[in-house]
Design brief:
By secondary structure, this protein is α/β, with parallel strands linked by helices. The chain has 12 helices and 8 strands. The protein binds iron/sulfur cluster (2 copies). The site of one iron/sulfur cluster (SF4) has 12 residues, from helix 11.
């Protein structure tokens, strides 16, 4: 047993290949009204990168070729891109589901006063970060005052119909650990979140997604500065679950950065690892979409963050 475990602990992440694309994830830019300490994008109000309207038009052409079931909009705060609403409308007009990775506080930014109504009108799935249901924990990870604003954001979304088990107005919350540990079981935590948030703040949501923190970018740097990086990597490797390998999200998701380059997932995008394990980055305008399925995926040690324990993806736990 000990020998097997040592072998596993030293292992490299197994090679994996793509299947049919079901989700196109688009990073609309790295600008955000927050600067959370766990952010794997290093997003902040000072970032200038934003997807241009020309690239958005190319993205729409790409979507028309790939025909995914879901388009997942992320950032930074994706809503800060000036073309966000145009893009959402275009995709929804095609009958494709849209996810907005919303940080909730954005609903109170200048120019976003009617955002909750826009999202409801277009039946966008709102996936919102709330790493804990207690004020101190959320503020310590996401910044002073973020918890109260987030609760008020949830209230606005509840008012327009989100979070009441309506399949057309789905509100998902995202939990990620506050430190260098794995998330607890998703189902148990969802019950706790629902009871506490309803009783204490009168807010409701549909589903809780638990996500493992990736040891890259701002969270990775924090681990390094605290001397916890090696232990965290070991924790991820020690908890490797073969069962999760078949359902890691990159098998059916493709990620596009703000300039229109392709990656196997948002984490690889942040690490600059080109799509398909290629040496150079591929732009959406140059990709033959018939050649996506079966392509090799660029895997590295951070991928153990997707397979540890119950597994992790942008849609929560894998098991
Ligand atoms: S984690 Fe989300 S809300 Fe926080 S800085 Fe990053 S993109 Fe913004
Ligand atoms: S980090 Fe990205 S490439 Fe690696 S397993 Fe997870 S989703 Fe796939």
């Amino acid at each position: 047993m000990h020998d097997t475990l040592s072998l596993l602990n030293n292992r490299e992440f197994p090679p994996i290949n793509r299947e049919e694309v079901k989700t196109v994830q688009i990073n609309l830019g790295y600008r955000c009204n927050q600067a959370c300490f766990h952010c794997h994008v290093n997003a902040s109000p000072d970032r200038k990168e934003q997807m241009s309207i020309d690239t958005i038009r190319q993205v729409i052409q790409f979507i028309d070729k790939v025909k995914p079931a879901v388009v997942d909009l992320t950032g930074g705060a994706p809503e800060l891109n000036p073309h966000f609403r145009e893009l959402v409308s275009e995709i929804r007009d095609r009958g494709i589901a849209v996810i907005d990775r919303c940080n909730l506080t954005i609903l109170f930014e200048h120019g976003q006063e009617d955002l909750h109504k826009f999202l409801a009108q277009h039946q966008v799935i709102v996936t919102a970060s709330l790493p804990c249901y207690t004020e101190d924990n959320v503020n310590s990870q996401r910044g002073d005052g973020v918890f109260k604003k987030s609760i008020n954001g949830l209230r606005l979304l509840n008012e327009v119909g989100y979070g009441h088990s309506n399949p057309d107005l789905q509100l998902h919350l995202v939990y990620n650990p506050l430190g260098a540990f794995l998330p607890p079981p998703q189902e148990t935590l969802e019950i706790e979140y629902k009871e506490y948030l309803a009783k204490t703040y009168g807010v409701q949501f549909d589903v809780l997604l638990t996500i493992t923190n990736m040891p890259i970018k701002r969270f990775g740097s924090t681990l390094v500065s605290r001397g916890e990086f090696e232990n965290y990597m070991q924790l991820l490797k020690d908890n490797y679950s073969e069962e999760n390998l078949n359902s890691v999200m990159c098998k059916t998701l493709i990620s596009i950065d703000w300039e229109g380059y392709l990656f196997d997932c948002d984490f690889n995008q942040m690490l600059g690892l080109p799509f398909g394990n290629l040496r150079r980055k591929t732009h959406i305008r140059d990709l033959n979409t018939n050649q996506i399925e079966g392509k090799s995926i660029a895997v590295r040690d951070h991928c153990f963050g997707c397979t540890a324990g119950r597994g992790s993806s942008c849609s929560g736990a894998l098991q």
